[in-house]
Structures are given as C-alpha cells and as structure tokens.
Design brief:
The complex is a heterodimer of chains A (about 110) and B (about 120).
Chain A: E1 4-7, E2 10-14, E3 19-25, E4 32-37, E5 44-49, E6 55-58, E7 61-65, E8 71-76, E9 85-93, E10 96-99, E11 103-108
Parallel strand pairs in A: 2-11
Antiparallel strand pairs in A: 1-3, 3-8, 4-5, 4-9, 6-7, 7-8, 9-10, 9-11
Chain B: E1 5-7, E2 10-13, E3 19-24, E4 31-37, E5 44-50, E6 53-57, E7 64-68, E8 74-78, E9 87-94, E10 105-106, E11 110-114
Parallel strand pairs in B: 2-11
Antiparallel strand pairs in B: 1-3, 3-8, 4-5, 4-9, 5-6, 7-8, 9-10, 9-11
Classes of the chains: A mainly beta (about 110), B mainly beta (about 120).
Amino acid sequence: GQQVMQIPQYQHVQEGEDFTTYCNSSTTLSNIQWYKQRPGGHPVFLIQLVKSGEVKKQKRLTFQFGEAKKNSSLHITATQTTDVGTYFCAGPKGGKLIFGQGTELSVKP
Amino acid sequence: DAGVTQSPTHLIKTRGQQVTLRCSPKSGHDTVSWYQQALGQGPQFIFQYYEEEERQRGNFPDRFSGHQFPNYSSELNVNALLLGDSALYLCASSLRPAGTNEKLFFGSGTQLSVL
C-alpha cells in the first residue's frame, strides 16, 4: 500500500494566490525529494532535503522537512500559470524510492 | 549530453499479448528503475537494476520482468497483458541505486494501452 501520503489531491487557485502541499510518511525518512510533472510530461527533480527541520528555497518555492523527518511541505508564493502541474514527494523506503500520490495544481489566470 | 531515452513512446496491445519497453539511461548513470504510472496516480515502483541484476522489486507480479545490459540500458517485459496494465511506464536513471540519497532522472515514458 501507499506509504507516503500527500494532501490535498487537487488544488485550484487563482493566479497570485499561494499554494501548499503536504507529505507524510509513517516512518522516518533519511531524505525527502520533490518532483514536478507538467501535464503530459514526466517527473522532474526539484530538490532534496536531508536534515531534520531543513528549509530550502527556490525563488517562490519553499520546501520544508519536519523535525521528526516524517513529513514535508512545499509552499509556492504567488502562483503563476507556469506552476501548473502535479507535485510529488518521494522518500526512500526499503531501498526503493517511493512516491506519494501527488497534488495536482491548477492555476486560473 | 543525452538524457534518459525510452522507446517506443506509444504502444497499443491486446489482452494476453507480451510487450517489451526499452530505456537508455543518462550518460554516466549505471542504475535504472522502472515505474508504472496510472492516470492521476503517482509513479509505482516496479523494480531497479544495477550491475545487470534486479536489486529491488516492488509489489508487481512475475509477469513483469526486466533486464539490464552491459551498457546499462534496460528492458521491461510484461507478459500476458491485462487491461489494468494500461499506464505510462517510466524509466529513471541514477548515479547509484536510488533508495539512498540519489535523485532520479526520468525519461518521457512509454504510454501503453491494452485493449
């Protein structure tokens, strides 16, 4: 079964609004990775977080790894139409990289 | 520097048939992972190949098998196709076996439709 959970499944926002997706694991993760998949495309690596409580920023994107290393979040400030796509978190479990179900973001101009 | 390449891009098969999908990893990468992505779902891990051996396997039946060649390219074979096998099959390569701290580079995928 799914071992990495993401919420929400869908998020529809007006351009300029903020967006957040959350990722939770039942077990501690050595690291968490985030990927973006544009409609009709393939997942593309965004970032990796390794340390407890780590926060990393990429322009309008802020990634956070929880203190217990069981949860993570991705926050986008002032969304743009170019942010449209599905955002996946992924964590290593049993030697495999396991993906969450993803959060699909749509942005209305 | 070529990224991960997959072939074919699209494939239509009928139930009971067999299919072979191919993947060439990113230059310099020696590990290939295969994922199945159903519509609206996250990628589901099928298996991973490193040093020409299957190193990790997900929860997929034996109908799914693979191979890695000395040049690190890989094949995914699916026998006795079922309607439920219809999905996007993604190949991903990494410098070392993923499941540690390695990020994955994905190919564009093969869209398989089983009729």
